[in-house]
């Protein structure tokens, strides 16, 4: 399980101190959790802290009970490779690699043989409905197809945690719906999916919606149950 404990991030901007994340505490259960909040409320900073791209000023991130945020950069990268997948607004595929090679890339980093990783990447592309596009370069795929390749790549090493940052931001509604379906299927399959979005319709599909304001967790909504609880009581 991924947990944030009194996670705090302060930036120095000249004379000013900006608190981007303010003592955020939450244990992310399996399933889909959305993080919403106005621009500047700290969503991206929080995601970067949870994924270990950035380190907190105070507090910690724990993964399966082990403190993750105080590991070295290399150790965090290794944990990230094996335990976390990423689907961003900009799909960030490697432009010179085919769809199949993009999906196989993390498998190569993890030391799998060419045969193993080709078989696994083919199966993943089939799972997102793109087996016929395996040899295409990203530039020959639509935005929605590129995002599905990014999802297949994010799932390559079967990570328990999947981060999605505005994954439908650049997509038309039909492609966006397909991407959402794939993410929901991952959440229903028991993965912890953490979704940052401005899209209220999308956040309503989450089991839990965390509201951030000025870096603080101000409200937790459970849209399906129609319940809210005060974050302060956590
Ligand atoms: N590297 C940085 N240096 C200084 N201040 C930063 C840095 N990154 C973020 N901030 C500040 O931290 C606060 C939170 O920013 P963050 O990008 O996390 O918000 P956000 O909710 O993701 O916003 P948006 O929805 O616009 O992407 C903002 O006030 C921002 O200016």
UniProtKB/TrEMBL annotation:
One of its GO terms (molecular function) is transmembrane transporter activity. The keyword Nucleotide-binding applies. It is an enzyme of class 3 (hydrolase). SMART domains: AAA (SM00382). Keywords: ATP-binding, Hydrolase, Lipoprotein, Nucleotide-binding, Transport. GO terms for cellular component: membrane protein complex; plasma membrane. Its EC number is 3.6.3.-. Residues 2-234 form the ABC transporter domain. This is Lipoprotein-releasing system ATP-binding protein LolD. The gene is lolD_1.
């Amino acid at each position: 399980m991924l947990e944030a404990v009194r996670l705090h991030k302060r930036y120095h901007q000249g004379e000013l101190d900006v608190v981007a994340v303010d003592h955020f505490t939450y244990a992310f259960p399996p399933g889909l959790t959305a993080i919403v909040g106005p621009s500047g409320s700290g969503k991206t900073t929080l995601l970067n802290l949870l994924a270990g791209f950035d380190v907190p000023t105070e507090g910690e991130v724990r993964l399966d009970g082990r403190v993750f945020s105080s590991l070295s950069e290399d150790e965090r990268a290794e944990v990230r490779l094996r335990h976390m997948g990423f689907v961003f607004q900009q799909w960030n595929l490697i432009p010179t690699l085919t769809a199949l090679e993009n999906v196989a890339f993390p498998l190569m980093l993890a030391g799998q043989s060419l045969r193993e990783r080709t078989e696994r990447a083919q199966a993943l592309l089939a799972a997102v409905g793109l087996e016929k596009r395996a040899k295409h370069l990203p530039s020959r795929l639509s935005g929605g197809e590129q995002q599905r390749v990014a999802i297949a790549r994010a799932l390559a090493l079967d990570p328990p945690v999947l981060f999605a940052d505005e994954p439908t931001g650049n997509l038309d509604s039909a492609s966006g719906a397909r991407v959402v379906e794939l993410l929901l299927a991952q959440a229903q399959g028991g993965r912890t999916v953490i979704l940052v979005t401005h899209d209220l319709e999308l956040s309503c599909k989450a089991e839990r919606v965390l509201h951030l304001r000025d870096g603080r967790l101000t409200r937790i909504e459970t849209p399906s149950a129609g319940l809210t609880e005060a974050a302060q009581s956590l």
